[in-house]
Amino acid sequence: MPRLPADEIRTRIAKKDAEGTIRHGGEWLTIWSDPDSLKSSTARQEEARHNAAIRQAEVSLAANIRALSGQTDIEVLFQDNQSATPGLSEAAVILPRITELPIPASLRGEADQRALCLAFPRGPLSLTSATQNHIEDQFWQARAAVLGMQRYGGIRHNLLAFYTKQLARAGLTQVVLANEILLRQILVQLAACNLGQDNGFLLNHAGLEMWNRFLLRQLPGLFEEMAGRLHDMAGFAAAASHSAERLLPHWQEAAQSLQQPDDQQPDDQLPELAGGLAESIQQEQPKTASQTAEQDARQHQLPVRPSAGRAYPVFTDEFDRVAGIEDLLSDVQLKKQRAQLDAELGKLGAGTRRLAAQLARLLATRFETSWQFDQAEGLLDVGRLGRVVTNPLQPLSFKTEQLKPALDCTVSLLVDNSGSMRGQPIRQAALAADMIAAILSLAGVEFEVLGFTTSGFRGGNSYKKWVAAGRPANPGRLCDLLQVIYKSADQPFQQARQQIAGLYDPPFLAENIDGEAVLWAARRLLQRPPVRKLLLVLSDGAPADRITLEHNQDSDLLARHLVEAVRQCRKQGIEVSAIGLNYDISHFYPKSLRLDNPESVPELLLESLTGLLAR
Predict the structure, then answer these.
(1) Which of 94-103, 188-197, 242-251, 380-389 bottoms out in mean pLDDT, i.e. has the lowest?
(2) Which of 538, 493, 500 is nearest to 325 (CA)?
(3) Residue 478 near residue 551 (C-beta atoms within 8 A)
(4) Helical H segments across 392-513, by residue range
(5) What crossing angle do the helices spanning 271-278 and 557-571 adopt, rounded to 10°?
(6) 541 and 512 in contact (C-beta within 8 Å)?
(7) Which letter does DSSP use for residue 452 in this model?
(8) Strand (E) or helix (H) holding 150
(9) How far is CA 173 from CA 165, 343, 456, 512, 587, in A?
(10) Buried (b) or exposed (e) across 446-480, using 16+ Cβ within 10 A?
(11) pLDDT band for position 20 (cuts 50, 70, 90)
(12) Which of 19, 284, 568, 588 stands the most exposed, by the fewest C-beta atoms within 10 Å?
């Protein structure tokens, strides 16, 4: 067969475009040289209308900047590259291109912030150091935002959207601990909050709130002098210089102290914390059936709950609750969620099924065979036929084969039931738990599924009791725990199938106190016979309870307790592993993985469990 010339081969290559139309090589070359040449007239008209609307929006936003800044001749450019363009004046405003309509509030907020900085310019530099000038510049930006809102109240929404977008760009949206945020990333928001006495600038973000309390505690009056001189440029400049000078020694020191992971501290730096965890137990309410194991766990040296006044205080635990999922959801709800979960199981891809089969094969090889003799039925025991010969009245003897798992262990899957898990993450966790439970149950391996959250937001009854007690300082954990049993280790899988489905989309997702949940799961594991114990944690963030963080000076209280809880578990021989959803939890769990795609939860859990059991 004659070979075609290379040019002719290239022209015969066919490939679909974005709209599904098959085009050959010559057409692709034409599209490359003239992208609009093969578009339909309708597509061209629609694109022209869209481009005209974008240009009109840019003109409108530029006009708004000029009006807000009071500078009618200011240059406003929209471009992908945010660096300065040669030939432009220093006062020119460069913004990202508008790509969607209506204009996002975050982009309007960025434009408003730039315009306000022109309307309320900064005063003279202190000329002491680059770092101090940077701090002062952020104070001036906050002043411009506050004065702008006092004059134009409608821009507040845009500014908050802009600051939220900045957090997202820095990857701080899901961060709740101050030790993961640099002060330079949020000082404008903190200053605007205090200068304008507007807590909305903390963006309902636990990390910002921690930093705010830290600064107010370490540097009292840091913002007060500036707040009193907002309308006096010279006075504000002096106050800003003085405040920046006060903040300068803490700029690096605070960041380092807040950023140091507690699990990197030497063991001898945590004697008070460890002692507090191992001390006496507060008196509890009468125990339910699911709580009786906690009393037995004391012999294993794991604390049930730390007492008040220790390194990890608890204001009250009288409203804490351990409940089975059947106590929280009706039978109708559980049946509906079981049907939804079964439907999702049918959609699992080949990769997930392959990993499930791999785990099943691994467990199938981990059995020991033994025989039970003198049974009423089973296989005929030929070794005992002699008894029938000597005594014809003697019944035939049978034997049965017993398969005992050589893999003698108990596995506990502890799932974060916080509000941020709502939607796809919690549904994927339910899929994984259901598959793993089925496989382990067939192999005779003990397994349980647990969840942890709080009874609601804003503290609940614990908070109300604290208020009634006169709001004593530093109350410690200030919320009502809710710990959920989806499947206990003693319960057969077939009986628990409907209960596990309660994990698919539970309506009670709230806050998360991870340290106490880990200790609770560990106590349940220690109650089991002395075999190998595995604890797998699935979480999407750091411990967080807004009320607790608001009313304790120690902003790392919950995080530090989680680190120590994991350490206590490992000392007791429990193998603790964790998977973080869109969050790096390695500073809490030494053995952990980060997963950025919730759809991969089943695969990663199966793979992790297979790796653990293969050891």
Answers:
(1) 380-389
(2) 500
(3) yes
(4) 424-442, 461-468, 493-500
(5) 70
(6) yes
(7) E
(8) helix 130-151
(9) 9, 33, 22, 17, 18
(10) bbbbbbbbbbeeebbebbebbeeeeeeeebbbbbb
(11) low
(12) 19
Confirm if 518 and 395 have CB atoms less than 8 A apart: no
Per-residue pLDDT tens over the stretch 53-64: 999 999 999 999
Torsion region of 600: left, alpha or beta (phi above 0 gives left; psi -120 to 50 gives alpha)? alpha
Task: Indicate the pairing of strand 398-405 with strand 76-78.
Answer: unpaired
Distances, alpha carbon 382 to alpha carbons 160, 341, 379, 391, 588, in Å: 84, 49, 9, 15, 59
Six token digits for residue 565: 């809880």
Q: What is the CA radius of gyration of the chain?
A: 32
How many residues would you count in the chain?
615
What is the arithmetic mean of pLDDT over 187-214? 87
Could you write out the DSSP letters of every residue in 25-76?
Answer: HHHHHHHHH-TTTT--HHHHHHHHHHHHHHHHHHHHHHHHHHHHHT-TT--E
Q: What is the per-residue pLDDT for 61?
A: 93
Quick: pLDDT tens for 249-270. Answer: 777 544 444 433 333 333 333 2
pLDDT of 452 > 90? The answer is: yes
Contact 517, 483 (CB under 8 A): yes
| pTM of the complete model beyond 0.70 | no
- In tens, the pLDDT along 500-521 reads 999 988 888 889 999 999 999 9
Burial of 391 per CB tally in 10 Å (0-12, 13-18, 19+): exposed
The answer to whether 544 touches 488, Cβ cutoff 8 Å, is no
Distances (CA, A) of 354 to 142, 294, 611: 55, 39, 15
467's tokens: 């208020």
Share of the chain above pLDDT 90, in %: 32
Q: Flag whether pLDDT at 191 surpasses 70.
A: yes
Beta-bridged to residue 415, according to DSSP, are 451, 538
The encoded tokens of residue 298 equal 């004391």
Q: Can you state the angle between helices 130-151 and 156-169, rounded to 10 degrees?
A: 150
Q: Tell me if 304 sits within 8 A of 297, measured CB to CB.
A: yes
Residue 81 vs residue 498, higher pLDDT: 498
C-alpha of 418 from chain center: 9
Which residue, 52, 54, 19, is CA-closest to 38?
Answer: 19
- Sign of the alpha-carbon torsion through 541, 542, 548, 553: negative
Task: Determine the pLDDT at residue 435.
Answer: 81
3-state secondary structure of 361: helix
